[in-house]
Amino acid sequence: MNSVEIVSAGTRRGLMFVLSSPSGAGKTTLSRSLMEGDNQIALSISATTRPRRPSEAEGVHYHFVSERDFLRMRDDGDLMEWAEVHGNYYGTPRQPVEDSLAAGQDVLFDIDWQGTQQLRDKMPEDLVGIFILPPSAAELLNRLRRRAEDGSKEIARRLSNAREEIRHWVEYDHVLVNRDFEGTLSVLRSILTAERTRRRRHDAALTQFTKDLVADLEDQIAVALADS
Ligand code: 5GP
Where are the domains of the chain? Predict the structure, then answer.
């Protein structure tokens, strides 16, 4: 699915597909579903100092690290971006992302607006930013409660942080209101397909392809003339 390439696979640099939203808008479920059945995109696994939730696994949802290790990674330049969110540190390990992009693999990021700003400053050509909004504040609270993994204090903290996060919608390329999961997922897939076929990502391959096409046209013109 979604393996649309203009010329042929492996001839473009990977793109950075960034999803941001207030906590509870459905972004994590959407990003996991987007990855299923699409072997051209890899999820960037962040490092965090947040305690692991019961449903989470080390190396799958996050790399759970101590504050000391996180700060060392940051100071050694091993993080592409980092931020403090809800009182914990979160950051993107640099090497896996750079390796994927260079190999033509797309990378999906589930990060906040602060991280998105840092990535956009560094790699504006590679980044596609998507902002997901909840349909209403009441629905946001419902979803946080349904998840039932955070206490009521933590839920209140996340709701109050949502105010700040939502203000940054204008910094994104696409903004989606997540009314129904399937609909939003389908739009996300379409955006990904469209971004993959964006001309500037294919300039090198297209230069050669069109050159060959024009050269072959000379032969076809000769064939057409011979038939006339
Ligand atoms: P949670 O604790 O719910 O997993 O994540 C809290 C927030 O931190 C979410 O908005 C999530 O997108 C963001 N986040 C997760 N990983 C990173 C990261 O590596 N960098 C930044 N800047 N934000 C992150």
Answer: 16-197, 203-228
- Between the CA of 21 and the centroid of ligand 1 the distance, in Å, is 9
Ligand 1 atom, smallest distance to 115 CA: 22
Mean pLDDT, rounded, of the chain:
92
State which of 29, 48, 112 you would mutate to test the pocket of ligand 1, scoring each by most atoms of that ligand within 8 A of its C-beta. Answer: 112
The model's pLDDT over 88-124, given as tens digits with 9 standing for 90+, comes to: 999 999 999 999 999 999 999 999 999 999 999 999 9
Which residue's alpha carbon is nearest to atom 19 within ligand 1? 91
User: Which residue, among 47, 35, 19, 205, has the nearest Cα to 105 in the 3D structure?
Assistant: 35
User: Whose CA is closest to atom 14 on ligand 1?
Assistant: 111
Q: Quick one: what percent of the chain has pLDDT higher than 70? A: 96
Query: b/e string for 13-34 if b means 16 or more Cβ within 10 A?
Result: bbbbbbbbbbbbbbbeebbebb
Write the pLDDT tens digit of every residue in 215-225. Answer: 999 999 999 99
Domain 16-197 architecture: 3-Layer(aba) Sandwich (3.40)
Query: Which atom of ligand 1 is least distant from the CA of 22?
Result: 10
- Mean pLDDT confidence for 161-179: 96
d(CA 90, CA 107): 17
